[in-house]
Structure formats: structure tokens, C-alpha cells
Sequence to fold (425 residues):
Amino acid sequence: MADAYRSRLLILEDDPGVGKVIHKVATASGHDARVVSQPDAFFSALEEWKPTHIALDLVMPEMDGIQILAELGARKCTADIIITSGMGTRVLDAAGRAAHEHGLNIVGLLAKPFSSAALRALLAKPPGSPGNFRPGGKDHSGTTSELSEAEFRLALEKSEIHVHYQPKVSCLNGALVGFEALARWLRPRDAVIMPEQFVPFAEKHGLIDDLTCLVLEQALTWFCPRFVDTGAAPAVAPASAPATAPAVAPPGAHSAISLSVNLSASSLHDMRLVDRITAVCLEHRVPPARIIFELTETSAMESPVAALDMLTRMRVKGFQLSIDDFGMGHSSMRQLVRMPFTEIKVDRSFVISAAHSKESRAVVKSIVDLGRSLGLKSVAEGVEDAGTLTLLQQMGCDFAQGYWIGRPMAGDDVADWLAARSSHV
Fold:
């Protein structure tokens, strides 16, 4: 029986030479590895050996890689997948997005010929790391299939919804500029349930505004004593940020640290939410200008009239507004210009693939340039290595988020993150 704690890489490759190279790199990196060249052998090994990682070539004689990925999706495969191909980055990118649509976690795309170092870097990623085309990691195991409205209301009342915080830093010097508040449901009989599972339920049952206010209330309770009226807050650089990055912010720099909260499209139809969130900020004595509400591009354009009214009122109150996942929707330039956004966030799928995809780099650069031309700050999500941050610096991107900078963490863990990052400066 295979060691349950040892990573297992299943390789589907019809070129013996390439298969041998991948096998050699994998085993040298501490993985068990098997190479197969036929789809039947591949799926048999998938069931019997249960690999933690899969490397597959798109061009196969009997069953091509796209068919394999579709079947893996149908089987709800949870392995981390690396796609290889000699057909160029456009085909690789398209395959990655197709795999995402099947619910698969693609941790990397390798254009042939690829280097051993590039393969090792992908295999070194922690199991379940979010990949090029998956919006979030596989760090949840709960389900809401049997969720009732009464149970969710009780979860809100009993504060089973907990907030985690992901840091956002300056691309220029690595200084801490803010945190994004991300909800997690610690359901008693499950593990952690992620927002993509329970937010649609809250929207369907008219509980989304209650959820938004709960997240804001909990986040401000954590945020206020640390970053409001408490003196200078640390400005922390990533581990490999430029040596000029400051270890401690200058006096008054804490006033620039922001808190971002996600806003549902369902909330754009009830103006009373603006009064509720304003009251929460007043209660905690936090200026609305320190709060950024994030709305996805698609959501903002679903009901443009309602969105314009609601978002304009929020700006009048002083709140900042971010258009999230930009590049994934189909908004017109006219609609974007009409909305009073202050920040534009580049979708993580383009950022993660920017290092190896000319097309993704072009998209990221165009969004950053668009934001600058409209007077918007730009934020890149999905920064997972130093090279990507350097690329963003060269493009003139303002801010960055991602696992390389910091994963979403409980509030009590932020101090340790701050200390750890300071030690690298």
C-alpha cells in the first residue's frame, strides 16, 4: 500500500522520453511517480493508486487531454493537475479554463519544452493550492446540500460565521496597505464551509444583507483596535521584496490601511443597507473611507441602474468601491466609466498565468493601464511567487494579494504573520 502521507504523481504521457524526465524530477523531489501512456491504464491507476497529483499531455492518440479532463471532472477528481503541451500558450490557457469549468484544480501549465525547475516549482506547491484557473483553494470539505434557512439564521445568531483576513501590499515597496475580510462558516458537523457555498444560499433566502453586516461588524471589532487610533501599524514586505521596503510604517501611515468587504449583487436593490453599514462604522468610530466594498464585474453590470444608485450613495457616504475579478465579465466601457469605483482588481486567473502566458500578461497590463487612465488603484490577486510581483511592479500595478504574500488567516494569527514578514526585511 502506498504511503498515505507521500505525494503520488500519475503521469499520462505517450512520449517515453518526456515521461521519463517527469518521473525523474518527481522522484528526486520526494514524490512517488508512475507513468502510463494509455487512457485505460490511467483511469485504473486513478482508482487504485489514488494520486495526489496528475501530469497529463493534451495531445494523446486514443483519448486527448480535453476528454481526459472532462472525465476527471465527471469523477470529481481532487488531485492537483499539471497540463503539458507543445501546442502553445493559447491552447494551454484554453485547456486550463476548460478544466476549471469542470471543477478541477489546475496548479500549472507547462509549455513543451519545459525546464526541470519549472516542473519542480509546481510539484512543490502545497496540496490543494489554488491553481491558474480555480478562484479558490480546496480548503473546505463542508456542504450546504441539506442546509435549511432556520439553520443558517441560527448560524448568524450564534456567530458561527468567522472572518479571516488576507493581507494586501504595495507592489512598489511591499508595505502593508490593507486586508480583505473573507467569511468562513464553521458549521458544527462539518469542516470549514467556504463562501462560494453559503453565500448563494444567503442570497436566495434574503439573508445576504444580514451576513454582510455580520462580517463587517466582526471585521471592524478586530480591525479597529489594531489599525485605528493605535499609533503606527507595521508595514510589512513579502519575504523577497526589495531591500528598501520599510519594516515599520512612518507616523500616520496606519491611517492608510484599509479593510475590504465583499458586497453581493443582491444587496444593490435595498438602499437601507447603506444606512446599516454606515451605522456599524460610526459605532466603531471607523471612517467610511477606510472601508472598501468589493463587487464583481459581472454583478455590477447585471442591474446597472440599481448599481449606479446604490454605489453612488455609498461613495457619498465616503466608502471606497472596488470592481472585483475584472476581465472575467462582459461589461461595456461605458458602464464601467459610469460607476463610481475607486479600485480595480485583476482576476487571479490572469495574474497566476502571467509569468508563462503572453496573452495573460497583455490582459493584466491593459487592465492596470485602464485603471490608471480612469484614476483607479489597481490590485492583482493570485500572486504566488516573487517573479509575478516583479512583473506587476514593472507594469505599474499598485497593490498585490496572494498566497506568496499571505494566505487568509484568523485574526489572532495576523500578529504572527506581521512578525514573520518583518524578520525577512
